[in-house]
């Protein structure tokens, strides 16, 4: 019998709502076994072999292969919450956004779960944390296997969301180690199918299931070709500031293509794909390490 029977949907909903109020819109539960299976399939190795030759980021919650995980992330809507928080901080650290993420996530988890007679056993893997030379979690892999975004790991190494395009960020994965076996089954209605191709993203973003596979393949190939050209420009930029501008352009390529594809379909329905590109202050912070925190 599980020692935490009271952990249920209501806990996740409360945590999700509390995080959203702090600027974290992306909240997606998924079984952690998908994350581990990704590496098993990629390496085509047996589970036992993989455990002997493992990098830290390839395995989470090693004591339980079948627990509940939740992916947390944000869009541009995080920024006003972050800047408001900074106004209350006396000393701004070296990485204030990372600090805000850690403090907010940990505080909400402690607050929402402290009322339980038995506190659930969980571990938070933040995307900016490293163990040696390896990140603690391959956050973009978590994004793909959870069904939130497709991870294009051949050319651009960007992730693509059907609603936000490339303009979002994954911040953490929470592993609830005690939610396993029969309890995990209670959360299956919250799970999404993994996004395993760019074609799936195009279909979702344009809400058009009638796109031919040939058309989608051509669209993907065209985008990758633009990626390669822009990647070459960015990597060969001599001036540091110019290079950062070129990296921003790399991210704009899929944004523009996704926006055009979405609006070509949605316009017929009297709708429009919303603009989710980061604002200027966010760009300055992420790409130029400029801490002029203006909304």
Automatic annotation (TrEMBL):
Principal location listed in the UniProt entry: cytoplasm
Subcellular locations according to the entry: Cytoplasm
GO CC entries: cytoplasm
Domain of life: Eukaryota
Protein name: Cyanocobalamin reductase (cyanide-eliminating)
GO molecular function (one): cyanocobalamin reductase (cyanide-eliminating) (NADP+) activity
Species assigned in the record: Naegleria fowleri (Brain eating amoeba)
Taxonomic lineage from the root: Eukaryota, Discoba, Heterolobosea, Tetramitia, Eutetramitia
InterPro entries the record matches: MMACHC
Family statement drawn from the similarity comment of this UniProt entry: Belongs to the MMACHC family.
This protein's UniProt keywords: Cytoplasm, FAD, Flavoprotein, FMN, NADP, Oxidoreductase
Keyword Oxidoreductase appears in the UniProt entry: yes
The protein's required cofactors: FMN; FAD
Gene Ontology BP, a term: cobalamin metabolic process
Pfam families: MMACHC (PF16690)
């Amino acid at each position: 019998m599980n020692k935490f029977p009271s952990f249920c949907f209501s806990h996740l909903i409360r945590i999700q709502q509390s995080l959203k109020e702090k600027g974290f819109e992306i909240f997606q539960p998924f079984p952690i076994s998908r994350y581990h299976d990704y590496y098993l399939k990629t390496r085509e190795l047996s589970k036992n072999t993989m455990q002997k030759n493992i990098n830290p980021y390839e395995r989470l919650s090693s004591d339980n292969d079948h627990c509940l995980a939740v992916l947390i992330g944000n869009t541009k809507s995080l920024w006003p919450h972050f800047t408001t928080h900074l106004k209350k901080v006396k000393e701004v650290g070296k990485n204030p956004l990372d600090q805000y993420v850690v403090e907010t996530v940990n505080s909400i988890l402690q607050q929402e779960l402290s009322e339980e007679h038995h506190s659930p056993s969980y571990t938070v893997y933040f995307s900016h944390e490293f163990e040696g030379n390896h990140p603690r979690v391959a956050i973009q892999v978590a994004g793909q296997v959870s069904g939130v975004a497709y991870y294009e790991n051949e050319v651009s190494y960007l992730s693509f969301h059907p609603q936000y395009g490339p303009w979002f960020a994954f911040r953490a994965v929470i592993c609830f180690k005690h939610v396993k076996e029969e309890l995990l089954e209670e959360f299956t209605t919250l799970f999404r199918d993994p996004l395993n191709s760019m074609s799936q993203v195009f279909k979702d973003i344009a809400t058009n299931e009638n796109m031919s596979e040939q058309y989608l393949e051509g669209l993907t190939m065209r985008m990758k070709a633009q990626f390669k050209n822009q990647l070459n420009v960015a990597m060969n930029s001599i001036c540091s500031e110019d290079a950062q501008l070129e990296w921003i352009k790399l991210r704009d390529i899929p944004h523009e293509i996704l926006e055009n594809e979405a609006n070509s379909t949605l316009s017929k329905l009297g709708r429009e794909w919303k603009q989710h590109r980061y604002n200027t202050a966010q760009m300055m912070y992420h790409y130029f390490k400029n801490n002029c925190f203006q909304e």
